Amino acid sequence: MSRRIAVLGLGAMGLQMASWLAKSFDVVGYDIAAERVALADKEGVASATSAKEAADGADLVLVAVRNRAQLDELLYGADGIAEVMKKGSAIILTSTIGIAPVEEVAVQLAEQGIGLVDAPVSGGPARAGKGDLLVTVGAYETEYEFAKPVLDAMASTLVWVGKAPGKGQSMKTVNQLLCGIHIAAAGEALALAGKLGLDQTVALEALMSGAAASFMLGDRGPRAIQADNGEEAEVKSRLDIFVKDMGIVTDAAKSVGMAVPVAAAAEQEYLLGFARGQAAMDDSSVIRVVSPEDRA
Amino acid sequence: MSRRIAVLGLGAMGLQMASWLAKSFDVVGYDIAAERVALADKEGVASATSAKEAADGADLVLVAVRNRAQLDELLYGADGIAEVMKKGSAIILTSTIGIAPVEEVAVQLAEQGIGLVDAPVSGGPARAGKGDLLVTVGAYETEYEFAKPVLDAMASTLVWVGKAPGKGQSMKTVNQLLCGIHIAAAGEALALAGKLGLDQTVALEALMSGAAASFMLGDRGPRAIQADNGEEAEVKSRLDIFVKDMGIVTDAAKSVGMAVPVAAAAEQEYLLGFARGQAAMDDSSVIRVVSPEDRA
Predict the structure, then answer these.
(1) In CATH, what class is B4-164?
(2) CA atoms within 13 A on the CB side of A62
(3) Which positions fall inside the 3-hydroxyisobutyrate dehydrogenase-like NAD-binding domain (chains A, B) (predicted)?
């Protein structure tokens, strides 16, 4: 592949994706934080001194930003890449920023002949670093095919869920609805188990052996038990990501006239966690919102 | 084993457990509905003409009733078995009736020298019929050991979660909190997927491949999609069971001073389903509570 790829945004996910892709492609990376660029450089990612420099001449620009404001700044701000990107190139947007924003940005980019491949990813940094992500894509066919070699490299599971930008976000929104609820539910379950006098670790094992099992219960359960017992669990995924994502979930539901009471209750728990100062803690710490102070 | 076992309550679960146990033990069964006794008889379960007759002389009485009212009637009603059960015998209570009720009944039975093995089961009738249940037990050691051969036969996973009656119910309560939330969450997710224009079956498959996966999503998902599209899905587990069980969950949480907002939101969805006339439908039909009428 002689295709030239820029990776913009070298945060937890972007750095891992850039490093992995650099093993198979010609990758140049950029981040507004110089120390992130230096980290990527160590992993074999060519560095640029600006977003514009990285995107200039690139066939595909993989974007890993946090939210719509960062995306708008990256595209149209002082160091905005939209004006330097060539016709026929495409942006692979790996971020979860909501359905309507992606649809709007896709229209703007199309006016300049730039494609948008809506490809939000799931799986976390460790899996991003070995091409083991779940990638759900919404894109027109031509652009999907153009980006497919890179998407294939990033994903262990690649699902083309819809033939337009926005459908990847739709799928990710549904995915996050479940993930966000399951983590909050794991918190309620394990806090209740403790309060009812059960051994939480024995309970977790029994729960995972039957119909109560979920991926999130198995993955977050041990860290939730730590958090419930006053320990600081390792931060594998920050709590404030779910403040953002559950906001996207309830907004999306409202936009189509749907009530989602269980998702809304989970959203409130993340907001309560945020208000309690847990934004940068592991998302499993949401258990503390419901955990009684006088736990045994 | 020359131990004599009575199985009282031959509903969906009781009939299957009795039939399975009759392959290895001397089992006599009874139900207030004569047609259920006839069904059990066909499966090799000796029949009795009253609960008292079945329990008289039994070493272990396995009880599969729906709720506390039925249990009280069975123990102390007109055909009440407590007065005929022998000292040193024990009741294996497989029902989910709540923590406090079991603790109270255990005290009453202990006064007569009858043990109570609190052993709520999970897994549904099909698994009950082949000894493939998850059984979480709360019992004193002597009684647990006494009942263990029968519990081992019923269970593929047997967990002795606590050394007193009530602890089995506690564990089951936590289990049901998760199961009830996960089914309601699957409904919200799949209804939202449909409303956002995604193919629900493709979405379900993608969701099950990643962090959004749960046992309930995989098991109930296909039937939820049927229910969302106006079909009558096969009834594998009735919706009103979760009206009862989520009531037990929120009561248990209140009793220990805990808020469980996500479980409470799920409980409301089952109550809404009940109010909409879905009590006897499959529990996956809870999706209809949130599904918009104008779905595409």
Answers:
(1) alpha beta
(2) 34
(3) 166-289
